[in-house]
TrEMBL record, chain A:
It comes from Paractinoplanes tereljensis. GO terms for cellular component: plasma membrane. InterPro entries: MetI-like, MetI-like_sf. This is Sugar ABC transporter permease. The keyword Nucleus does not apply. It is a multi-pass membrane protein.
Length: 288, 309
C-alpha cells in the first residue's frame, strides 16, 4: 500500500541521504586535492575538489623529514604494545566477570563500571603518571588507558553467550580453569578477539593527548602529535603578522599532506574492518 | 536477603577461593590497573584541599580546606568558562542527540539493501579518524583560502577568517561534531529498529495508520529505551564536552566563546602549574558529572522505566 505521500517522501529521503553522503565525503576529497596542489593555487583559494597545479613535491618534502618517519614508527610501536597489553588485561577480566557463580563477581563488575561515571580528573592523573616515573616512556601511553570498560563489557557479554556445557565438560575432563580458558574458550572467541583488537588498535593509533601530555622529546612523539604541532604552528603563524606569505602557504599544503598520510592506514583498512566494529557495538548494546 | 553470620561468610569465601583461585588470579592484574590508574587518581583529588607545590610532596604540603574551591567560585573567568561549557554542551546535545535518530529513521525507510549499506559505510567513516586529523581538516576547510570561503566569495561575500572569530567558534565546533558523530550514532538505533515486532506494524496498518502514524506510534516507542539510555549517557558527559577538540581548534582569540571548564583547567593546571586550583575545578566537574548522570538515570527510570543499571 504505497500512497502518493509516501512516494514523495521516498524522493525527499533519497535527496537527503545523497546530501549526507556528499557532505561526509567532501572534506576528504578537498584535503586530498589540496595535498596534490601547488602552494599558489591553494593560497588563491582555487582548490576545492580537483588538485590545481598538480604536483607530488609536497609529499616528497614531508616524506623526506626523518622526524616524520620516527614519529610514524613510534605510533606503530605504541599501538602494537598498547593493544597487546589491553587485549590480555581485558580478556582476563572479562572472562572472570562472565562467571556467574563466582563469589564477589558483583563487586568486581561494580569496580569497573563505577569508573565509567566518575574519574579522578586530569590533574591527579598527571601527578600520578609523573610520580610513577612514566613520563617520556611508552608506558605513559599504554598503562593509563589499558582497559576500556565499554570493550570489557562487550567481551563479557560474548563470554556469557558461550554455552556453559562446553566448560562443564572441560571441567569434568579435569581441565584447570586456566586450561579451559586457553584451550576451549579462546579458540571459540576468535571473532570477538579480532573485534577487540581493532577497537583498541584504532583508538591507540588515533590517540594523541597522552603523547602530547606525557612525552617531552620530539623523537618520542607519535605521528598524531607531529601533526598536532604542525597545525598549532600554522594557527599560531596566522595569529602573528605573517611576514612571509609563502612560508604560511607551504604550511597549508604540508598540513594537507601530513593529514592524508596520517589517516591513510585507517582509510585503507576501513572497508574491511567496519563490519567488525558495527557487530562489536551491537553486542555491547544488547548486553551492556 | 539475610545476612550470613560472619564465620559462615568467611568459610564461603575460603571455599570460593579454594575452588576458583585460578579465576581470581586472572583478575589480579586488571584490578591492579583499576586501583592504580582509576581509583588512586580519585584519591589524588585530596590535593584540591591541600597546598601543592610541584616537586614537593605528591599529596601536597598542608591542608587548606575549601580555599581553592572558594577561589574559583569567586573567579569571573571560571564562570565565563562555565557558561561556555553549558552553551557548547547544550548545543552539542541539541544537535548530536536527535540527528542520529532522524538519520536512522531515514535509513530504515531505504528498501534497497546495497544503497542502505553504502550510505552507512560512508557516514561511519569520520568516526574512525583521529581527532587531530579532524581538527586539521576543519582548519583547512574553514581557512581563508578554504572551500567555505570559496563559496562565500562566489556569492559576492567577503571572506571570513573563521578561526579568529569568536562568534563563529561554536558553529564550527558543533558542525564538525555533527559531521564526525551522526553517522556512527545511528548504529544503536538501527539495531533497535530491527528488534521491533513486525506484527505491531501490521496491527497499525489494520487500524488504518499511514507510514507517518506508524513511525510515530510504533517505531519511536520501539527505540525509546535506546534513546533514553543514550540521553542519560550524553547528559553524564555534558561538562566534559569536547576537551580534546577544543584544545586543538581554539586559540586565544576565540577563548571568549571556546574556552570550557576542561580546557581552562588544563591551562591553569598543566600549563601554569596551579595544580591544587585546577584539581579543585576538576573535582567539581567530576562530581557534577556524577550527579547529572545519577539524576538523569533516576528521572529516566521514573518516567519511562529505562535505567542504565
Amino acid at each position: 500500500m504505497v500512497t502518493r505521500g509516501y512516494r514523495v517522501f521516498q524522493v525527499v529521503n533519497a535527496i537527503v541521504l545523497t546530501v549526507v553522503v556528499v557532505v561526509t565525503l567532501f572534506p576528504f576529497v578537498n584535503i586530498v586535492a589540496r595535498s596534490f596542489s601547488g602552494e599558489q593555487e591553494i593560497r588563491s583559494g582555487r582548490v576545492s575538489l580537483i588538485p590545481r597545479g598538480f604536483n607530488i613535491e609536497t609529499y616528497r618534502h614531508v616524506m623526506s623529514d626523518s622526524m616524520f618517519w620516527t614519529n610514524y614508527r613510534n605510533t606503530v610501536l605504541y599501538t602494537v604494545v598498547a593493544t597487546a597489553v589491553s587485549i590480555v588485561l581485558t580478556t582476563c577480566y572479562a572472562y572472570v566477570l562472565s562467571k556467574r557463580q563466582l563469589k564477589g563477581r558483583g563487586l568486581l563488575i561494580g569496580i569497573a563500571i563505577f569508573t565509567m561515571f566518575f574519574n579522578g580528573g586530569l590533574i591527579p592523573n598527571y601527578v600520578l603518571v609523573s610520580s610513577l616515573g612514566l613520563r617520556n616512556t611508552l608506558w605513559a601511553i599504554v598503562l593509563p588507558n589499558a582497559i576500556n570498560v565499554f570493550n570489557l563489557l562487550v567481551m563479557k557479554a560474548f563470554f556469557e553467550s558461550l554455552p556453559v556445557e562446553l566448560e562443564e565438560a572441560a571441567a569434568v575432563d579435569g581441565a584447570s580453569q586456566y586450561g579451559t580458558l586457553w584451550r576451549i574458550v579462546l579458540p571459540l572467541s576468535k571473532a570477538i578477539l579480532a573485534t577487540m583488537l581493532l577497537f583498541y588498535a584504532v583508538s591507540f593509533w588515533n590517540s594523541w593527548f597522552a603523547g602530547f601530555l606525557y612525552l617531552d622529546r620530539q623523537e618520542l612523539f607519535p605521528v598524531t602529535v607531529y601533526l598536532r604541532n604542525l597545525i598549532a604552528g600554522a594557527t599560531a603563524g596566522v595569529d602573528q603578522t605573517a611576514t612571509s606569505d609563502s612560508a604560511l602557504q607551504i604550511a597549508a599544503s604540508i598540513q594537507a599532506v601530513t593529514i592524508v598520510l596520517t589517516m591513510l592506514p585507517i582509510m585503507l583498512v576501513y572497508p574491511f574492518i567496519q563490519r567488525y566494529f558495527v557487530s562489536g557495538v551491537m553486542l555491547g548494546a544488547v548486553k551492556g | 536477603m539475610t545476612q550470613p553470620r560472619p564465620e559462615a561468610g568467611r568459610r564461603t569465601w575460603r571455599a570460593a577461593v579454594r575452588r576458583d583461585w585460578q579465576l581470581y588470579s586472572l583478575a589480579v592484574l586488571p584490578l591492579l590497573f583499576f586501583v592504580v590508574f582509576r581509583y588512586l587518581p580519585m584519591l589524588g583529588n585530596v590535593i584540591a584541599f591541600r597546598r601543592y607545590s610541584p616537586g614537593g610532596d605528591v599529596l601536597g604540603e598542608y591542608w587548606v580546606g575549601l580555599r581553592y574551591f572558594k577561589m574559583f567560585l569567586n573567579d569571573p573567568s571560571f564562570w565565563q568558562v562555565f557558561a561556555n561549557t553549558l552553551i557548547i554542551g547544550g548545543l552539542t546535545l541539541l544537535f548530536c542527540f536527535p540527528l542520529p535518530i532522524v538519520l536512522a529513521l531515514l535509513l530504515n525507510e531505504v528498501r534497497t539493501r546495497w544503497l542502505k549499506g553504502f550510505v552507512q559505510t560512508i557516514s561511519y567513516l569520520p568516526h574512525f579518524l583521529s581527532i587531530v586529523v579532524v581538527a586539521g581538516i576543519v582548519l583547512q576547510v574553514v581557512s581563508v583560502d578554504g572551500v567555505v570561503n570559496q563559496g562565500l566569495t562566489a556569492v559576492g561575500h567577503d571572506a571570513i577568517s573563521f578561526i579568529q572569530e569568536p562568534g563563529w567558534f561554536r558553529t564550527i565546533y558543533v558542525s564538525s561534531e555533527v559531521w564526525q558523530t551522526v553517522g556512527w550514532g545511528t548504529i544503536l538505533y538501527l539495531a533497535a529498529l530491527t528488534t521491533i515486532d513486525a506484527d505491531l506494524y501490521q496491527a497499525a496498518l489494520v487500524d488504518g495508520a499511514n507510514r507517518w502514524r506508524q513511525t510515530w506510534h510504533v517505531t519511536l516507542p520501539g527505540i525509546r529505551p535506546t534513546m533514553m539510555t543514550l540521553l542519560v549517557l550524553n547528559i553524564g558527559t555534558f561538562l566534559a564536552v569536547g576537551f580534546e577538540k577544543i584544545l586543538l581548534l581554539a586559540n586565544p582569540l576565540t577563548y571568549p566563546t571556546a574556552d570550557v571548564i576542561s580546557t581552562y583547567l588544563y591551562r591553569v593546571g598543566i600549563v601554569s602549574g596551579s595544580f591544587s586550583y585546577a584539581a579543585a575545578i576538576g573535582l567539581f566537574e567530576s562530581v557534577i558529572g556524577l550527579v547529572l548522570v545519577l539524576g538523569a538515570n533516576r528521572l529516566s527510570r521514573r518516567l519511562v522505566g529505562t535505567s542504565l543499571w
